[in-house]
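# step 3/5: fold
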Amino acid sequence: MCRWLAYSGTSVLLDEVLYRPKHSLIDQSLHARMGVETTNGDGFGIGWYEEHTDTPAVFHDIGPAWSNRNLREIAGHVRSPLFFAHVRASTGTAVQQTNCHPFRHGRWMWMHNGAIAGFHELRRDLVLAVDPGLFLSIEGSTDSEVMFYLALTFGLDDDPPGAVARMTGFVERVGREHGVPDPVQMTVAVADGEGLWAFRYASRGPARSLYYSSRIGDLRALHPDVDFLRDVSDDTRLVVSEPLGDLPGAWNEVPESSYGVIRPQGDYLSEFAPRDV
């Protein structure tokens, strides 16, 4: 599968989050502890928002993240208050730039860990449900990108949790029609430059691992000697496939079948369930 992280809060150098933690995402690209595969070397991607632009920037490469000099260079010079990073282990689709996460459309970014079971059998019906005005924007061949464009089709602009629930329900319905009773396995992050939504769900069995960081104020009280905690605001949060280190009290598991929202108005966790389209 894959490993990913999403950051929202004080504008920081990407390097602070991607490279410096003890079990950083770059370390996870080679030594993942909770993924299906230990190594996630089938490409990577980062995406970030800046104040002077309406759409996020993205950078993808098909090589492994742990040895990419360009990624290291960018991470040491780019600051952002909201960014995604993803290291890929392919579930069968080609290793190519257009299949690397995060995916972008307009102001939206999307990344996914997991798979649609039987995707090659379901793909035609799923793709035909994408809004014709969005269809030509699909560049790659992954189930993850199709999920993104289905969510856009089902109202991501107006209701992100509802759109993801309708996308999930639609994939499950198509799966049943093709004899695939439990097709969805996912953790998903989606952002629009202001808000960040993260989902954990599986049609059956445990979903892939997902964690969110504790409130910075609480962590600052527990660990006053950690420089990073002194430099970021209380509303700073991380959502990750697996913890970036072993700092006591820092990480909380996202419950099964739930989603979280992080935005300036506040953050919360809620139950998640597929919806009929």
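# step 4/5: annotate
The mean pLDDT is 94.
# step 5/5: archive (pending)
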